[in-house]
Design a protein that fits this description.
Keywords: Amino-acid biosynthesis, Histidine biosynthesis
Order of helices and strands: EEEHEHHEHEEEHEHEHEHH
GO biological process, one term: L-tryptophan biosynthetic process
CATH superfamily: Aldolase class I
GO molecular function, one term: 1-(5-phosphoribosyl)-5-[(5-phosphoribosylamino)methylideneamino]imidazole-4-carboxamide isomerase activity
CATH architecture: Alpha-Beta Barrel
Strand order of the largest sheet: 1-4-5-6-7-9-10-11
Family: Belongs to the HisA/HisF family.
Shape: globular
Oligomer: single chain
Largest sheet: 8 strands, parallel, barrel
Protein name: Nickel transporter
Number of domains: 1
Number of helices: 9
Helix content: 25-40%
Radius of gyration: 17 Å
Strand content: 15-25%
C-alpha cells in the first residue's frame, strides 16, 4: 500500500490540519520533527523513512490565489528524488502552466477549487490527479466532477475534509461506492487513525492513503510502514 505523508503549509509554516477548519490550524507538533519549516520537516520525514511521494497542500495558494511556483520549483529541485503531489488550488488551465516545467510535481486538481473543466482534457495520460472533496457529507465543487467519470484521472483521491486530523476513521462507504463504479487507482484522504485503518483500506483494494496526524502522533510506526511496503511488493509479485 502506498502511504503518502501530507504537509499542510499556511503562512509559510507547516501546520496541523484538523477538520478542514483552516482558520483554526495551529503550528505542527510532531514526534518526527521539531521544526515547522517546510524544507526541514521534509528532510526530517525522509530521514525517518524513505517515502517516495509527498503530498503538499499550500493553503496560502488555495485560499488566496497566490502564485507559489518559484517556491515549489526550488523545493522540487531540493527533493528531486521524490514525487510531490501538490495542491495549490488550481482553478484554470493557465495556473497549471506555471508548474508544467517542474518534472517531479503532480498537480492536485481539487474539486473545491477547480472551475475550468478543460484542465481535465486528456486526463487518461495526464500527470494531474483529481481530488473529489467532501465536507460533512456535502460535495465541494462542480457536480460534473463527481458525476462524469469520463473526466476522471487515472489516479484519484477521495478527500473527506471534515475527517482530517479528527481521529474518526476513513470514509470507507464512500470509497467503496467510488471503487465499485470505476477502475481508477483510489487514494483515501482524511480520518486514518493508525495501522489498523491502513490494513482495512488495503483489504478493500484502496491503492494508497494520505496520512499526517497518525504519523506525527506516532500511531503509525517505521515497522508498520515497512510491513505495508513489503506486503504490497509481495502482492505485486503474485504472492498469496
Amino acid at each position: 500500500m502506498h502511504i503518502i505523508p501530507v504537509i499542510d503549509i499556511q503562512d509559510g509554516i507547516v501546520v496541523h490540519a484538523r477538520g478542514g477548519e483552516r482558520a483554526k490550524y495551529q503550528p505542527l507538533k510532531s514526534q518526527l520533527t521539531s521544526s515547522i519549516d517546510p524544507f526541514q520537516v521534509i528532510d526530517d520525514l525522509l530521514q525517518w523513512f524513505p517515502f517516495t511521494t509527498l503530498y503538499i497542500a499550500d493553503l496560502d495558494a488555495i485560499e488566496r490565489d497566490m502564485d507559489k511556483s518559484h517556491f515549489y520549483s526550488e523545493l522540487a529541485q531540493r527533493f528531486s528524488g521524490i514525487s510531490i503531489w501538490l495542491d495549490v488550488g488550481i482553478k484554470t488551465q493557465k495556473q497549471t502552466s506555471l508548474y508544467a516545467s517542474i518534472s517531479n510535481i503532480r498537480l492536485i486538481l481539487g474539486s473545491e477549487s477547480l472551475t475550468d473543466l478543460s484542465v481535465l482534457t486528456g486526463s487518461c495520460t495526464s500527470q494531474n490527479i483529481l481530488s473529489l472533496d467532501k465536507r460533512g457529507g456535502l460535495q465541494l465543487g462542480l457536480a460534473e466532477l463527481f458525476e462524469n467519470q469520463q473526466i476522471w484521472t487515472d489516479t484519484m483521491i477521495a478527500m473527506s475534509l471534515d475527517k482530517v486530523g479528527e481521529n474518526r476513521g476513513p470514509d470507507t462507504d464512500w470509497l467503496l461506492a467510488l471503487m465499485s463504479t470505476s477502475k481508477c487507482d483510489w487514494y483515501a484522504a482524511g480520518g486514518v487513525r493508525g495501522v489498523t485503518d491502513l490494513l482495512n483500506l488495503q483489504r478493500l483494494g484502496v491503492k494508497g492513503s494520505l496520512v499526517a496526524s497518525a504519523l506525527h502522533a506516532g500511531h503509525i510506526t517505521y515497522e508498520n510502514l515497512t510491513n505495508l511496503n513489503r506486503d504490497t511488493a509481495f502482492a505485486c509479485k503474485g504472492g498469496v
